[in-house]
Design brief:
The chain is an alpha/beta fold. The chain contains eight helices and seven strands; from the N terminus they run E-H-E-H-E-H-E-H-E-H-E-H-H-H-E. Strands 3-2-1-4-5-6-7 form a seven-stranded parallel beta sheet, sandwiched between helices. The longest helix is centred in the middle third of the chain and has 29 residues. The radius of gyration is 17 Å and the shape is globular. The structure holds nicotinamide-adenine-dinucleotide. The site of nicotinamide-adenine-dinucleotide has 32 residues, from helix 1, helix 4 and helix 6.
């Protein structure tokens, strides 16, 4: 086991990639807080993990609400005494309306996808700083880079979504720089299109086929479980000197560096 007793909060752990993180971290020995707006799904994931003999709780949270985000961190510290890892994964993705280009909607997407991530990071940061150790993993997206496949404004990925993920990349650099002297690392995972229910609902299959065949070096669709190895690495001491990085887990879609 690579994460024995690692106290991990996973926002948006109730379904999709967050659920896959929760299950994998628990299998690696972590104590997992499944934090989600969706109580029914979050509780079900936590209960199912407990059914395997691992340690898991559900924590209700609206990451876009400052009080709620702080209460999430406090609840985990009250339960397990520390926070070793945060995966700030929650986002409006399943329900996203790509055709809505109003300013109101831009603000709504920012409130959850960017500020929600920022509030989650800020909620755990004082605890990690006190411990002089912690790993924050933000959840970006290759959508932050893929301006070239948005030829029309109602196509995917939406401007709103993509810009929040670009902001998360910048935030990741700043948190890494700020937290480094205090033992707090911050890295992002940037998935390519991953076959969760949200992707199946919102991205046409023909588009996935084109991405896989034309834009990915490894010509296979990504699954939620494909993200987990990177997350385990970034949470563990194996990555002790890795911070401020955006790790694309995308079959070679975006190649930088
Ligand atoms: N699936 C993909 O193709 C893909 C690709 C790149 C990046 N991502 C990112 O990975 C993450 C997970 O993707 P997914 O496909 O599993 O998405 P999803 O929509 O299936 O899951 C998102 C989860 O976040 C929760 N959530 C939404 N708003 C919340 C809030 N205000 N407070 C707390 N929880 C909230 C939802 O209840 C849900 O459980 C997201 O950040 C997404 O942007 C996904």
């Amino acid at each position: 086991m690579k994460l024995e007793n690692n106290v991990t909060i996973i926002t948006g752990g109730g379904q999709g990639i967050g659920e896959a993180y929760a299950r994998r971290f628990a299998a690696e020995g972590a104590r997992v807080a499944v934090a989600d707006l969706n109580r029914e799904k979050g509780e079900a994931v936590a209960a199912s993990i407990r059914g395997t003999g691992a340690d898991a709780i559900f924590v209700p949270v609206d990451v876009s609400d400052e009080t709620s985000a702080n209460a999430m961190a406090d609840a985990v510290v009250a339960k397990w005494g520390r926070i070793d890892t945060l995966i700030a994964n929650a986002a409006i993705y399943y329900d996203i309306d790509n055709a809505n280009h109003s300013f109101e909607y831009l603000k709504k997407i920012f409130a959850v996808n960017y500020f929600g991530s920022w509030l989650s990071c800020r909620a755990v940061y004082p605890h990690m700083k006190k411990q002089q150790k912690g790993s924050i993993i933000t959840q970006s997206s290759d959508a932050a880079y893929t301006t070239f496949y948005v030829p029309h404004e109602d196509q995917l990925p939406s401007f709103h979504y993509s810009v929040t993920k670009a902001a998360i990349n910048a935030m990741t650099h700043f948190i890494a720089a700020t937290g480094g002297p205090h033992g707090v690392r911050c890295n992002a995972i940037s998935p390519g299109p991953t076959m969760t229910e949200a992707t199946k609902k919102s991205v046409p299959k023909e588009m996935i086929d084109v991405i896989v065949s034309m834009m990915m070096a490894i010509k296979q669709p990504l699954e939620a479980e494909d993200m987990c190895g990177a997350a385990v690495f970034l949470a563990s001491d194996e990555s002790r000197m890795v911070t401020g990085q955006i790790l694309c887990v995308d079959g070679g879609m975006i190649m930088r560096g």
